[in-house]
């Protein structure tokens, strides 16, 4: 998705895909058994009893693969299915909003054209294939169940209905990056807790550096606020989860739920019920005017915005000040592991133009990463749980006639398993655009050593963030209440409102504007009162 808006993409929880610049130079000397980086073509086997298909499959995802990757995957698939034509209708959109509008138009047509799309941009469309129904199906190109080829079990990325309409190619992890040279010069070490974040930031600022590159657009309200809210409120999961008799109760999952505040996978072990959550807000059994909220906000304003970017409240790309050596720390996703390596090694003119700087203007420096430093205190209930998920290429399939859908799924199973993904990666490498956004979701993939070492900095734990984590800042995601909550948060960060008064205002705003909240979530008062009834909006 070259040239697309990083801001809009991340706001929708779809992380930056392969629009990354090249890291081709790391491939030198890193080869597989046949002299190619991604393994032996002899592994590309197809079961003898696999069906033969004839027709056309149209790929129109938001992320635009390099032409060499498209051609390599197409060529590899046609070795097995010579009568299937793969039509790539991907392109570089100006931003994700343009893709969202285009996709909405396509899906509203009497006869939908594209077959494979980025389905997360059409959450209300009910015509996507549920990949859960194909997990146990034998992949004819490996002879194994597809769930052995693709790591479905790593992340429970389901809709409210319990379906899985989208798959991502890479694993996402949020990290803190730091400039080792700046840290050494300032005589500081990576902070081990929030108190040390404050202390280290103060020393870095005195030394003339931007301590922490973030922004008010999505990193603080979307990521940081959610992670640290969860440290103080993991027990909210017991009120917001589905209960026996609810329409979305899953006995296999929810029947075995055992609350453990420090379980890294806590929020992946129950079915979230929006009805239960809003029911508890209305009943005031879940509240924001508490000592825990006051302490949480007090901790946040000790860092933000004074130790972040000078233009913190305007949208900024947090990556640029860090890669330029101006900021000492950066909160970002695992995609920057490979981005940083390449940009600091050899910044191309194309990449420099995307960053808005001149080629050759970056000075290399040593860097590393650390996990979210915990807040500490008597009101803290758990360790930080930075949410994980999928990133890279996001793919969904439009349900059409059964035979056509079977053909499309045959291709997708080939693509998202070692035979197809190996060819796809090799084409990406040949185009000098190999920059995985995290460890692969496809099993059996081995990256060249230098890339593998970079991705090895990520230790996945199967963490899912709470669905309600940033509600206190972002509200229902639209409407008057969201605007009010964001304004309140701005005021407390700017020290116009004391934390105690802020917590009281948040609670009062939710109580006063509860009807607006429900309207923006598509729920009714009856839906909230009756979690056993499936809402029309779902």
List its traits.
single chain; 538 residues; alpha/beta; D-Maltodextrin-Binding Protein, domain 2; four-stranded mixed beta sheet; 22 helices; 9 strands; 37% helix; globular; disordered N terminus
Question: Summary?
Answer:
The protein is 37% helix and 9% strand. It is of the alpha/beta class and 538 residues long.
The biggest sheet, with number of strands, parallel, antiparallel or mixed sense and barrel status, is: 5 strands, mixed
Radius of gyration: 24 Å
Q: Provide the CATH architecture of one domain.
A: 3-Layer(aba) Sandwich
Number of strands: 9
Fraction of residues in β-strands: 5-15%
CATH class group of one domain? Alpha Beta
Tell me the layout of helices and strands:
Blueprint: H1 6-11, E1 55-60, H2 67-78, E2 84-88, H3 96-107, E3 116-117, H4 146-149, E4 167-172, E5 174-179, H5 180-185, H6 194-206, E6 210-213, H7 219-232, H8 236-240, H9 251-254, H10 274-283, H11 291-301, H12 319-323, E7 327-333, H13 336-345, H14 349-355, E8 367-370, E9 389-397, H15 402-415, H16 418-430, H17 449-455, H18 471-474, H19 479-493, H20 499-512, H21 514-521, H22 525-529
Parallel strand pairs: 1-2, 1-3, 6-7
Antiparallel strand pairs: 3-9, 4-9, 5-7, 5-8
